[in-house]
Amino acid sequence: MDRKALWSGRFEKGMDKSVLAFSSSLEDDSALAFYDVMGSLAHVRMLGETGVLPSDDAQLISGALKTILRDVEDGRLELDDSLEDVHTNIEQRLTEIVGPSGGMLHTARSRNDQIATDFRMYLRDEVLEIVRGLSLLQRTLIKRAEEEAHSVMPGYTHLQHAQPVSLGFHLMAHAFRLDRDAERLMEAFRRINVCPLGSAAMAGTTYPIDRRRSAELLAFSAPSDNAMDSVSDRDFVLDAAYCAMTVALHLSSLCEELVMWSSPEFGFVEMDDSYSTGSSIMPQKKNPDIAELVRGRVGRAAGALSSLLITLKGLPMAYNRDLQEDKATTMRSLDSVRSSLAMTEGMLSTLSFDTARMREMSDNGFINATDLADYLVGKGMPFRQAHEAVAAAVRECIAAGLRLEDLSLQQLRSYSEMIDEDALDIIGVEECMRRRSSYGGTAPQCVAVQATECLDRVMRRESAADEAMRRIDAAWEHLLG
């Protein structure tokens, strides 16, 4: 059988090989093969139900598509490089199986709406998988935060010692960052989950199709509203790429801390051997390479988002071939984020925290100074005056090589006569940490509340994501039944 492009009837000669190689998307869109067949199954069923195609032809095509799907899932579908994309390959294979009737499948459909539908189905699954990965990492952070709610460490601003916090509090800060990422992804899923199928090239079709039925068969929430917008819209890809970018940013920040904390200068963590590497020349080295790789791979997500924005800038309505470029970078970005989540969860679940070292470092940097100033405010002193008094004490302690808690009551009173013996009870770093009990604070009871509330959000989101997955799986079973 002559294997040629679906649009070749207009042309007297075939595409130059160099042009074919330049324009082919087969390397990237082969990942859409499963979704392309499922979209075609829904389309042909709708065409049969509405009478656009004779029932016998619809059933014949459907049976052949199921055969092709088995080949896709078993890795037996051979893709021809001389055909420009996976969609052409599948339609050519269909025609080989059923003959000219295979050409009926494309009735009331263009590659424009076909590709948009395939990519939306692909991204739905990817987004839900990343939400699942986020949930696993959040659960690990929450578990370790609950274990370390009483472990004191220095809190930092500008990478300088700032105030005493608990290790559990610090870990929960990362958990809530990821919580926002997961919320954004679920919102992106809602916008992705709209069906362009039946929009055809850009103006709809003259055939009496049922686009709502197509959407229902593919577990979409609704058909898209405007055919021209449907085939040119790539906002849903930008949503996915942006969400991937924020996840990558937050993982990079977390891994940067793990890299720093594993250095001798900090000494806060010991990476498990299974998530570390050594040096080819220095026998003593234990390198946090996995954390560094996760940190480095934020570049992939940033590059994907930047590439998409530049590609989409200034495109006129409706479909333009530029849109072919939306897949490769986005797919690689999402894959990188998924694997980075798994690696980060593995690191966090196996590493060891040196809480004694953290407590030791909490004695440096006068991280209890704010508490002494707050004490004076509680005695009636204006905060700015209290700030100056405590700053003077810190300045003289630095010169003498002392800590605030090393000063006697008499020495403390030299900075303000409002300081009484009870001040000695509130400037210990453990007490400073425990007293920060405002909602969202670092006190152990606050960390417990944060852990409970964050876990509740994780569980509700897991339930929503699982339900979305069940609906999609049920749609596949229905189409294949």
Number of strands: 6
Kindly report how far apart the N and C termini lie: 31 Å
Structural class: mainly alpha
The backbone outline, from C-alpha atoms, is elongated
Evaluate the radius of gyration: 30 Å
Helical content (DSSP H or I, runs of 4+): 55-70%
* Strand coverage percent: under 5%
Order of helices and strands: HHHHHHEEHEHEHHEHHHEHHHHHH
The CATH superfamily of the largest domain is known as: Fumarase/aspartase (Central domain)
Uncertain runs with pLDDT below 50, 5 residues or more?
A: none
What summary fits the major beta sheet? 2 strands, antiparallel
Name of the CATH architecture of the largest domain: Up-down Bundle
CATH class of the largest domain: Mainly Alpha
Whole-number tally of structural domains: 3
Averaged pLDDT: 94
Report strand order across the widest sheet: 1-2
CATH topology label of the largest domain: Fumarase C, Chain A, domain 2
Please report the number of helical segments.
19
